[in-house]
């Protein structure tokens, strides 16, 4: 397990990045929401988290140095799959920020103290 100390810029400008991806389930019987979620989860694990292993780490406050550090513990990233009765056209222009997208963000313990 590796520990990476964060730079002064990283210490000052840390913030969560909330991301939502929308996929339309093809009308064929071979496809399902579960299949799409598994494909995306596998792609994130293999294409993103293998070469950028530190993205699967956790922030930790080091009391000895009074600084945040990144513990590369291979814990993975949070992944949530969900379905909706809405069609993509009902969501409006997906390329523009939309305040209603916050309804789709899963936030278990996101704002807990690191100290």
UniProtKB/TrEMBL annotation:
<comment type="similarity">
    <text>Belongs to the plant acyltransferase family.</text>
</comment>
<dbReference type="InterPro" id="IPR023213">
    <property type="entry name" value="CAT-like_dom_sf"/>
</dbReference>
<protein>
    <recommendedName>
        <fullName>HXXXD-type acyl-transferase family protein</fullName>
    </recommendedName>
</protein>
<dbReference type="GO" id="GO:0016747">
    <property type="term" value="F:acyltransferase activity, transferring groups other than amino-acyl groups"/>
</dbReference>
<dbReference type="Pfam" id="PF02458">
    <property type="entry name" value="Transferase"/>
</dbReference>
<dbReference type="InterPro" id="IPR050317">
    <property type="entry name" value="Plant_Fungal_Acyltransferase"/>
</dbReference>
